[in-house]
Amino acid sequence: MVALTGVMALVAAGPTAAFAAPTNDDFSAAVAIDSLPFNTTLDTSEATWDPTDPAQCSSNGSVWYSFTPTSDMRIKADTIGSGYDTVLSAWTGDAGSLSLVACNDDYSGLQSQITFAATAGTTYYFMVADCCGNGGGGGGSLVFSVEEIQAAVNDNFANAISIGALPYSNTQDYGTSSAEAGEPSSCFTPVNTVWYSYTATATGSITASTNSYYSGIAAYTGSSLANLSQVGCRGVYSGQALTFVAEQGTTYYFQVEANGTSQLTFQLKVAPDPIAQFYYSPGDPSSYDTISFYGYYSSDPAGAGISAYAWDFGDGTTATGDSTSHRYAADGDYTVQLTVRTPDGRSDSTSQVVQVRTHDVSIDRLNVPATARVGQTIGINVYLKNTRYPENVQVTLYKSVPSGFVQVGYSTQLVKVSTTGQTTRYSFNYTVTSDDLAVGKITFKAVAQLTEHTDALPADNELLSNPVKVSS
């Protein structure tokens, strides 16, 4: 009875006792941060969602903190070490009309981090929410930290790192970077950006890249944020380099967005040439074949892609396109060349010798006796004609049965070239059986097959004999 009474008392106490929401559950009760660095832990399991919470960044199961800097500074806030999937955002303004300063989910694993430039006297509100809770409920074990940091040396456009000779590579911590006021948005929204500048010493294609799939790069010309002209841009999640033609004497500014990546390496180099590659089919074409050529295996390591394909078939004809076809009028060795070109004018060529050989043999005649008896061994002669190239040819001999044909034997030999009508003989022997007598006749079939090449005209590689009448 005593134990039951204790449980009932606990239940009666309701959420204000064991299951109370955090004291900073609402915006109006944000915990004020007096000084930096600041670090706190909090159980947000019972944090709730309020309809007045801003919707641009997750507000599920949210808690609030506020900080008013006394001087201009750069701020980094994070939830590293928390026990659930957090979303962290910073805001200015009043309840119901807040303006988003920064928002992040999954900066490090499931935890969040934001950095931004803070202005003296402005109050910033931090909202920590549960990314994936249901029904507006919160989170778990929260670890929340805020500190002042020193900006990356090239965080602002005016402090862009000047690049000298190419190739160039620079690795730095983008956790101290942020977007400055007036920074351009092109194919990505600037959040954690730094700047580089490069004055081209010669006209030619250059390639800017990073070591992260999630980063973004934009290139501009101009002298200040107010008068920049975009040269090119590669958005976050594209995983591509940015390649363009740099004009001698022109200064280019590169805006690099880390998109939540802490360590990032930026590289600038002279763009390498594309790589031309092709294959063709069939691999042993004849003058009767229409050959298919495929150039789409060509690639551009600089990431600009291939914009043009030019084919020279070595017989005075040409074509364009990443794939094409061609038929040669006569046998011969033809040097086929493919030249590929990128949008910025880089090119590469490759060539292969295509050997066109029209291999063709034919069965001229198949000689068999007119009659045969059971038990008799008869001779069957197959004669092959060849007027083009010496060929190793296998001739397979079949005999007829009620269901079709069955193999009797085969023979392989070299068939020489003759332009005078001379043929090559294949000789076979066959002993007549009682099964043949039951049918009353035998029809033989000879099939010739080149062992090393494809016959260009296979229709005359097969021949049926006259029926051999079988008697007892």
Folded structure, characterized:
Residues 274-356 form the PKD domain. This is PKD domain-containing protein. Residues 1-20 form the signal peptide. InterPro entries: Ig-like_fold, PKD/Chitinase_dom, PKD_dom, PKD_dom_sf. Pfam families: PKD_4. The chain is mostly beta strands and 472 residues long. It has 4 domains: 17-149, Jelly Rolls, CATH 2.60.120; 157-270, Jelly Rolls (Sandwich), CATH 2.60.120; 284-289 and 303-356, Immunoglobulin-like, CATH 2.60.40; 361-471, Immunoglobulin-like, CATH 2.60.40.10. The protein is built from 2 helices and 35 strands. The protein has helices at 2-13, 434-439; strands at residues 31-33, 38-43, 63-67, 73-78, 86-94, 97-105, 113-118, 124-130, 141-149, 161-163, 168-173, 193-199, 204-210, 216-221, 229-234, 242-246, 251-257, 263-270, 279-281, 291-294, 308-312, 318-320, 323-326, 332-341, 347-356, 361-367, 371-373, 377-386, 391-401, 404-415, 424-431, 441-442, 444-450, 462-464, 468-471. Strands 1-3-8-5-6 form a 5-stranded mixed sheet, with no helix packed on it. A 5-stranded mixed sheet has the order 10-12-17-14-15, with no helix packed on it. The protein is elongated and about 120 Å long. Residues 1-18 have low confidence and may be disordered.
Summarize the structure.
Residues 274-356 form the PKD domain. By secondary structure, this protein is mainly beta. It folds into four domains: 17-149, Sandwich (Jelly Rolls), CATH 2.60.120.380; 157-270, Sandwich (Jelly Rolls); 284-289 and 303-356, Immunoglobulins (Immunoglobulin-like); 361-471, Immunoglobulins (Immunoglobulin-like), CATH 2.60.40.10.
